[in-house]
Structure prediction request, 119 residues.
Amino acid sequence: MTKILLVFIGGGLGAVCRFLVTTALAGKLGNFPLGTLTANFFGSLLMGLVLGILAGRFDSVRLFVAVGFLGGFTTFSSFSAETLALIQNGQIFAASANIIVSVVAGLGACAVGLHFGKI
Prediction:
């Protein structure tokens, strides 16, 4: 039960933080989902750091931060919906850019975080 509570509270806090980030960045680049991209990038970076630092230790912290908070903060479900909306609106370049930058930057940020988390 404690594990579920840790994930639940962390997820709620992460979702609120995602909402604040996406709201703050809404409309900064027209229809481009800058808030979602930002949340995914920094969430991926933090995920790598947390996983690297904890590396099999502190299971409760990992559940709260990695599974809960970062699970609630990162937004690949929103990413999918927003990318499809761009495609449906004929904004193929913006949709393609969102896919490429989100995936490449997210993977890169997670690798950097993992590297620095192991130092």
